Amino acid sequence: MGIVWAAMGVGIIPLAIMRAMKEIAAKPSEENWIFWSIVIVVLMPIIAFSLITFGVFSLKGEYQSVD
Amino acid sequence: MANNLSASHSEEVSSTRRVIAASSVGTLIEWYDFYIFGSLAKIISEQFFPKDNPTAALLATLATFAAGFVVRPFGALFFGRLGDLIGRKYTFLVTLVIMGGSTFVIGLVPGYATIGFWAPAIVFALRLLQGLALGGEYGGAATYVAEHSPDNQRGYWTSFIQTTATFGLFVSLGVILTVRQSLGLEKFNDWGWRVPFLLSIFLVGISVFIRMKMSESPLFAKLKKEGKTSANPLAESFQKKDNLKMVLLALLGATAGQGVVWYTGQFYALSFLQNACNVEFVQSNLIISIALVLGTPFFVVFGALSDKIGRKWIMMLGMLVAVVAYRPIYTVMYDAASLKKKTEIAEKTVIEHKAEVKGSDSLKTTITKKTFTDGTTYKETKKEKFPVDPAKKAALPKDKLKPETKKETVLPQDIFYKMIGLVFVQVLFVTMVYGPIAAFLVELFPTRIRYTSMSLPYHIGNGVFGGLVPLISTRLVEATRPGPDLPPADPLAGLWYPILIAAVCFVIGSLYISNKPAAMDAE
C-alpha cells in the first residue's frame, strides 16, 4: 500500500497547482487568491509531505513492527 | 493492613481527581477563550476590521484563519519543546496565562473608530497569541493527566480532558446567548460583546490558582531526577525515524479524521442550520447547545470503553459511521427545514413595507412573514438602500443596489427536537473519535518527547484539517451554484471534504494502527 500513499502525495501537488491557476485565471478576485494561497501554502505541502514520507516508510516495512 | 491499603487507594483516586479537575478547568477556559472570538466574529469585524479598509479586512481574514491553523502547530512545537525541557506543570500554566490575558485585553481594546489602524493590529496580535497558547495547552493537559493515570484507566481519565473542547464551545455559546438576551441586541452590539471577553480573567484567575498548587507529573519528575530528559525534543521527535513515523501515523491515521469529524459535527452543523436551513439565530444555537450537552458524557463512555477493548476500533468506527452517515443526516436536516416541502397558510401571510430617508439615502424595508401548516414560521427582511437623487441612483453599479436579504425560519417543536437528535448523532461520532484519542496519542511516544511529539499531529489534524472545514466546505457548495443569484444545486456538497479526509484516515488507521494500549514508563 505504501506506493499508493506516496503516489497520492505526489499527485496532489500538480492537481492543486493546476486547479488554483485555472480558478484564479478565470476569476482573479481577492477571495480566490486567499483561498488558493491557503490551499497551496498550508494544506497541500502538509498533505504531500506527510503522504509521501508515510508511503516511503510503509514501503520500507517500518510499520510492520507497530502492531 | 487492609484498612491502610484501602486508605491509600482512596487517597490516590482523590489525588487523580484533583489532577483531572485542575487540568480540565484550565483547558476548558482556554477553549472558551478561543471560541468566543469565533462566535463573535461578526461583531468583532464591525468593531475592529472595517470593510472599507482593505488592510484591516485582510487582517480580519488572517486573524480568523491564522490563529486557527497556522499558529496552533507553532504553539504546539514551541510549548511542547518547553514542556519536555522544563516540565508539564509550568508550561501549561504559562499557556493559560497567555490565553486568558489575551482574551481579557481583546475585551478592552478600543474600536477602529477610536484608535484607527491600531485597533485591528492589536486584536490581530492578541489573536495570534491565543492560537500559540492553545497550541501548547492541550498537549500539556493530556500528557499531564495521562502521566498521572494508571495504565488500565488512561482512556477514562484523559477523556475528561476531551470533554473540555466541546464543553468550552457550549459555555461560550451559553455566555454569549445569556449576555445578549439580558442586555438586548442594541446594547450587546454596542458594548455588551466585551463582557464574555472580560469575564475570562476571573475564570483564568481561579484556574491559575488551582494549577499553581499542583505538582509536576510523576513520570516527568522521575525522568528529570535521573537526568534523562531530552536535550533537544524537536530534533528527537522529528529527525529520528522511529518517532517521525509515529507522528505521521498519528496524523494520517487518527488526528486528521478526528479533526474533520469534530468540526463537521459541531461547527459545520451550526453553520448549515443557519445558512442552508435559515434557522433563526437563537433556535439554531439552542439546537447545537442541547445536542452538545447530551453528547458530552459519551466522551467519557468511549474513553472508558477504550481501556477495555482498545482505542483503535472505537476511533475507526467513529470515522466510518461519519463517512457513511453524513449525507443522509444532512439530507434529513435540509428537508426538515425546507419550505418547499411545507404547505403555506396563505391567509396568515403578512407583508409590511417601510420607507424612510436617512441623510441623502432612501431606505426601503420589506418584511414578509409566512406561517406553514406544520407550525413553521418564516420571516424575510429585505432592505434596499439607494440615493434619493435619481441621477446618483442611476450612476451606481447594479451590485450596489442589490437588496440585503435576511431569512429566518423558526421551526415547530417536533422538528426542533428532530434537529437536536440529528446533531446529537453527529456529536456521538465526535465522541467516538475524540474520546479515546488523547490516551492513544500519549501512548505512542516516550515520556522524554511526549509533549512535543503528540502536540504537533494533534494541532495539524485538528487545526489544519479540521479548521479548514468551514472554508473548503463553503467553497464546495458555492461551486455548485449555477449563477450569482441562484441557490446552490447541491447544498450538501460541502460534506465531501470531511467525508474524503475521514475515509482516507479510516483506511490508514485500520491498516496501520495497533489496538494494543501501551504501558507508559518513565523513559
Which CATH class of the largest domain in chain B applies here? Mainly Alpha
Strand elements of chain B, count: 4
Instruction: Write down the Rg of chain A.
Output: 15 Å
Q: Which structural class should the secondary elements of chain B be placed in?
A: alpha+beta
Rough shape of chain A? elongated
Oligomeric state of the chains?
A: heterodimer
Specify the helix fraction band of chain B. Answer: over 70%
Q: What is the overall silhouette of chain B?
A: globular
Walk across the major sheet of chain B and give the strand order.
Answer: 1-2-3-4
Any idea of the CATH topology of the largest domain in chain B?
Growth Hormone, Chain: A
Please report which band the strand proportion of chain B falls in: under 5%, 5-15%, 15-25%, 25-35%, 35-45% or over 45%: 5-15%
Task: Explain this structure.
- The complex is a heterodimer of chains A (67) and B (523).
- Chain A is mostly helical and 67 residues long.
- Chain A has one domain (2-65).
- Chain A contains two helices and no strands.
- Chain B is of the alpha+beta class and 523 residues long.
- Chain B folds into three domains: 1-229, Up-down Bundle (Growth Hormone, Chain: A); 242-338 and 414-523, Growth Hormone, Chain: A; 346-410.
- Chain B has a four-stranded antiparallel β-sheet with strand order 1-2-3-4.
- In chain B, helix 1 runs antiparallel to helix 6 (118-146), helix 7 packs across helix 18 and helix 12 (241-276) packs antiparallel against helix 17.
- The chains are: A mainly alpha (67), B alpha+beta (523).
- The A-B interface holds A 1, 5, 34-35, 38, 42-43, 46, 50-51, 53-54, 57-58, 62-63, 66-67 and B 61, 65, 69-70, 241, 244-246, 248-249, 251-252, 460, 464, 468, 471, 475, 508, 511-516.
